[in-house]
Amino acid sequence: MSLTSLSAFEVARKVKAGELKAVEVAEAALAQIQAVDGLSGSLDGGAVSADEEKKVHAFIQLTEKMALEQAEKVDQAIARGEDAGILAGVPVSIKDIFCVEGTTTTAASRILSNFEPPYTATAVQRLIDQGALILGKVNLDEFTFGSSNESSAYQPASNNPWNTEHVPGGSSGGSAASVAAEEVALSLGTDTGGSIRQPAAFCGVVGLKPTYGRVSRLGLIAFSSSLDCPGPISRDVRDSALMLQAMAGVDPKDSTSSTRPVDDYLAALGQDVKGLRIGLSPDYDAVYYPDFETGEVRKEAIQKEVHDTLYRSAELLAKAGAEIVENVPMPNTAYGIPAYFVISRVEAASNLHRFDGVKYGYRTEPAVSNLSELYRLTRAEGFGPQVKLRILMGMYLSAAGHDADYYTHAQKVRALIRQNFVRAFDPDGGHRLDALLTPTTATTSFKRKAVFGDSLLMQYSDQMTVSSNHAGVPALTIPAGLDEAGLPIGIQLIGSDFREDQILRIGYAFEQVSRDEAWREARPQVLAGEVKA
Amino acid sequence: MSLQYITPELFEKLVGLAALELTEEERAYLFEEMNHQLSSVESLRQIEIPEGTIPSLHGLNPEGIPPRADDWKAFAKPEQIVALAPESEDGMIAVPDVKGAK
Questions:
Q1: Cβ proximity of A238 and A208 under 8 Å
Q2: Backbone torsions φ then ψ of A299, nearest 5 degrees
Q3: pTM (two decimals)
Q4: What is the distance between the alpha carbons of residues A306 and A284, in angstroms, rounded to a whole number?
Q5: B-proximal residues of A, 244-263, CB under 8 Å
Q6: Do B101 and A369 touch (CB under 8 A)?
Q7: Nearest residue of chain B to residue A384 (CA atoms)
Q8: A-chain residues within 8 Å CB-CB of B11?
Q9: By CB distance 3.0 to 4.6 Å, which of A246, A330, B78, B88 could disulfide with A283?
Q10: Residues A470-495, buried b or exposed e (16+ Cβ, 10 A)?
């Protein structure tokens, strides 16, 4: 096994045992990035060569010097006999939506293309404090607004390492791609409607959206403040547990961070799943979306291979001793996306008003005659179309006289969505679930340009994930197979409030029971050196 | 032909309020996409909301720390914040005139 294939857990163990130097790990990660990543995303990056089409393009910015300095500190601490942290020497990428002092923090937008924050996000600082090496900032949909990475102002956008003609998903597409391509062991992403789990599923890696408030949002450039959750992306469940352990916990600088004590997530992995009740719901078997020509709601079944993988996974968990509970009603799942259209757009529009060319970031070049013109030109030039769309939608939906019709109404729908979960997890209820097992996505990764531009269809790719954002509950995606085209399929475990330990435990058990399955032998195209027709 | 939930006139008003300027291509795209998204939003009207349902602000009940007392704390490096501004004078962020010529 090559050094870059090692799990974060193994890297930290070997570094702390003196079997490996953190500097060696950093150098190996940089060499892997050099080999597979290709051109870094840049503003006005145009068409690329055929060779570059086959690269990953996960990174916007490499922080080589920072990573090597951090590695030297880790090695020095170990030489002095000090504890170098639970992530000692582990290479990590950071979604470029987190402020990191000493980097440009762009949100993949022209309007922040020159923004160098004077502080570091709490989640990132906690990774550094535990010995992680920050290799760089990775690409995303502009301001996290998308599910394919294609809306980034920094092109070329990231590709899917399993087939570079396909998208990695989004918005944490660069994060998932960098982990799948073994450029880093871990990546820090964010999940507002599925932005960790959908790309993790598309790229065949593990992604965890923690409970709202479990990880601090300080230093995360806000999309939808009542939904945003930072969380880990890794190649196995144990590494997500390890990364969450490093980041979770109250932050005095984020009043929505939870004061609840942090569980021992690694200890939870050692327990089996005998007797745990895992639910399946028919309400996750299809996507419901409106026909915009007639207004009628249409139903489309999920991809058959995704469906079959889900039920085969349930059988494997049953073999491991879990009790599978079928027909759990989650009737409000279909309203997740419409409610999300309202809540996320209203909050996004509010958050985006701060970008005006005055305090920081991009400012229009030509001399302007007044402040109003400065705002208009700066925002017209600095924001891409998906950002403008969210601003306009958010302003319309929150306009005076509309609030009761839209935002407050959507918040009531959110309450009903949450009630579905509360009922399913109620220890005295009819189902008494420990977790709900669902597909992570209705389909596997789609081709580049296949959906981009159709903002409605793009948003509906999050239907399986968005309800847990509304409810605030934790959700984990794990790889569970491949489709006929060799693209990864993810399954999702949704838990009750703050029970990350429980879904990690079940996910880990699934990895053990599926360890010898043939699909686990497959490798991403960029690692296998295969070029698919 | 898509259903229209907003009129072109209302759309233009929103563009002005949002302090945006759009190209014709952007205008056509955004107008159509807004109407598509509103077709999804309108489906929320089909759901019956039981009497007494309380709007949910965060999904779960927040267990966060209470907001800190309203006493300001100085940022250690204020000059770094001012340095981020495209234009500054004497340690203050500068802006063009609200109305008149620059």
A1: no
A2: -115, 130
A3: 0.96
A4: 11
A5: 250, 252, 254-260
A6: yes
A7: B26
A8: 392
A9: A330
A10: bbbbbbbbbbbbbbeebbbbbbbbbb
